[in-house]
Design goal:
Blueprint lengths: L4 H27 L11 E6 L2 E4 H17 L4 E4 H6 L13 E8 L1 H5 L6 E8 L2 E9 L4 E6 L3 E4 L2 E2 L11 E5 L7 H7 L7 E5 L3 H10 L4 E3 L5 H13 L3 E4 L15 E4 L2 H11 L5
Helix pairs in contact: 1-2, 6-7
Length: 282
């Protein structure tokens, strides 16, 4: 087991490219051969019609669990499908062991419908702090990476989120209604004002990438699952953005956040969105 963050930093300096290779191989072997070729018996529902799982999700997660665990001995993997089968395994995120947080197919609904807007998300965290992340969209041929303190990159080029243009409507991607409580729906209604243009989100990972690229101004999400957020939040941070909950605190992957929360292109936009979610003035 790795005890010191410096050891993980050394690992990232020497082996980050091997994580990229693992993502590409998982996609090439388990995801892309099934894209637009799924049989009916390869798709199941979990909690409802918008919460799907496919053989691509299951097999890609198994591949990444083996590959990532071998890259960093002593680490553990917390994957979406493994947690669905054994919810107690999620607790590893709160422990002291280095943990890989994996969403094998983020945007499964898009994947099932043959849309290219899906990705594979991997983050490496320690003591609840995300240290590195990878966002791979194989159908779009994009790979975004971030290492804490070293910047964010898309296909090898630096990412800078920038700030929204003054006077333009604020573009915000929001949670699907199926994944919000009545209280959260009420909070999200705070975004329905002149000067703000909310829309339903697609793949969370690709929405975070859009914020990091400056193509989207902010998100407003109402669920905490770390596999959806860990990679993207670090990507946005390292691109110069910020994330806040309604109490004004940064989002914590270990949970206990006041939802909905936002990730935004800059701190001022994050504060504006959280004020609207909390019922304040823009």
């Amino acid at each position: 087991m790795i005890e010191e963050t410096e050891t993980i930093d050394e690992f990232l300096a020497g082996h980050a490219h091997e994580v990229e290779e693992a993502l590409r191989k998982a996609a090439a072997l388990e995801i892309m051969p099934r894209w637009r070729r799924l049989a009916a018996d390869e798709v199941d529902q979990k909690s409802g019609p918008h919460d799907l799982v496919t053989d691509a999700d299951r097999q890609a997660e198994l591949y990444l669990t083996d590959a990532l665990g071998a890259l960093l001995p002593g680490s553990v993997v917390v994957g979406e499908e493994a947690v669905h089968a054994n919810p107690a395994s999620y607790e590893a995120i709160r422990g002291g062991t280095p943990v890989w947080i994996v969403d094998p197919v983020d945007g499964t609904r898009q994947f099932v419908h043959g849309d290219p807007g899906f990705c594979t998300l991997v983050a490496l965290a320690h003591h609840g702090r995300v240290l590195a992340s990878w966002t791979y969209a194989p159908a779009l041929d994009h790979l975004a990476t971030a290492i804490r303190g070293a910047g964010a990159f898309l296909d090898g080029e630096p990412l800078r989120a920038g700030s929204p243009e003054p006077g333009r409507e604020l573009r915000v991607a929001t949670s699907h209604p199926d994944f919000t409580t009545d209280e959260q729906k009420s909070a999200l209604l705070g975004l329905h004002i002149p000067g703000v243009a909310p829309r339903p989100c697609g793949s969370a990972g690709l929405e975070y990438l859009a914020v990091a690229r400056g193509d989207l101004d902010a998100t407003a999400f109402s669920w905490e699952a770390a596999w959806d957020h860990a990679a993207g939040l670090l990507l946005v941070e390292e691109a110069g953005g910020a994330h806040l909950t309604r109490t004004g605190e940064p989002f914590h992957i270990t949970g206990g956040n006041d939802l909905p929360f936002t990730a935004a292109r800059d701190a001022a936009t994050a504060r504006r969105v959280t004020a609207l979610l909390a019922g304040g003035a823009a």
